[in-house]
Amino acid sequence: MTEFANWSGGLRFTPADRVSPASEGELSELLRQAAADGRTVRAVGSGHSSAPLVRTDGLLVSLDHFDGLISHDADARRATLGSGTPIHRAGQELLKVGLAMENTGDIDRQTLAGGFATGTHGTGRTLGNLSTQLAGVRLVLASGEVLELGEDDGDLLRAARVSLGALGIATALTLRLVPAFRVHRSERCAPWREVRDRLDELAAENRNFDFYWYPRKDEVKLRRINEITDDRPDHEVRRGSERDMVGWSADVLPRVRELRFHEMEYALPAEAGPACFAEVRERVRARHLRHVAWRVLYRTIAADDAYFSTAHGRDTVTISLHQNQDLPYLDYFADLEPIFQAHGGRPHWAKLFTLKGEALLSRYPMAGRWLAARRRLDPGGLFLTPYLRDLLGVAR
Ligand SMILES: Cc1cc2nc3c(=O)[nH]c(=O)nc-3n(C[C@H](O)[C@H](O)[C@H](O)COP(=O)(O)OP(=O)(O)OC[C@H]3O[C@@H](n4cnc5c(N)ncnc54)[C@H](O)[C@@H]3O)c2cc1C
Fold first, then answer.
1. pTM for the whole thing?
2. pLDDT on residue 280
3. How far apart are CA 31 and CA 40, in angstroms?
């Protein structure tokens, strides 16, 4: 078998088998067989997660063949897409029928199912993470049966929105969408001191607002995106680190990341964001400037009700640390992680962190409901690897 490597190269393993079923029937049969053989099964999207969520010594399942727009209803603002559809392709196919996702993350190379499963988010005080757009899902369960969840399946859908790939394998997703819209993106740099007292105002004034902080220059790059309804032409102008861009949301919201990096991100109650960032900044400047030149990213997310959403029940600020793929990062992340935790932080499921078991679950008031849904849908633990058992405190 060939080795699997994730996007950053930090996760490598060799599954017993890697398969890309062509139909739900084939997928059901593969799951039944894996259960009979006593193997674990993990679904993989585009392999962008740093946490070892997809690691298995059993069966690794790609949903490459479950790709593209299946159906849509422009009036109801709903569309059903294959779960393995990369977000960038979803954006283009939806645009052709006059629809759009209301928000995306910083990039759009992830698959829809992979992005939803880990609570992937963009930025915007009034905008939920991507999984809040999930109105329905078709899951192939560990038993091989197909379960279709819709908006009336409150409890199970709230569990399935951020599923960690542990409830079943999604084959199709129905999304709650908005009419296609155009936006203006503006990026410019400023000294940190000019911005520090205006964070609330900037987040309130802009549809999408975030900033990168550059430790060595103590400077920030402010990124603002707002909807436009006039007919100014699409364009992109760059002057040094400044950028001005107009176009459809699917083209302008996500960016391209060429340089590979390691990342830790915590989601904090919105009111704790500024104080937590101030501590992070002080600590980086006091201890890490010599090795760390990479930026720190500050974003906002609206509260939602998915059981394992990092924004569950609270408006949220996220702070992410980045370090170049080839540079040491463990000491840096280990030194900063307690700061996030002391501010009530919940780690991004897909990125690097050390919290697990009760210390992690106690940060999610509805963790018990998620775990009950997992037991109900996968009583034999087909989708539970040693990593996930340890993470979720589920005994063998
Ligand atoms: C360069 C870069 C930029 C990023 N930007 C952001 C960002 O802006 N915001 C943010 O929040 N995160 C961001 N991330 C994190 C990224 O969005 C997550 O790691 C996301 O889960 C990756 O999706 P994927 O398709 O690669 O899924 P994978 O990493 O392959 O899998 C992730 C999870 O999804 C599950 N899964 C995949 N397919 C299915 C399926 N069909 N059914 C059930 N479960 C499934 C897997 O089992 C696993 O648990 C970024 C990561 C990188 C590397």
1. 0.98
2. 98
3. 9
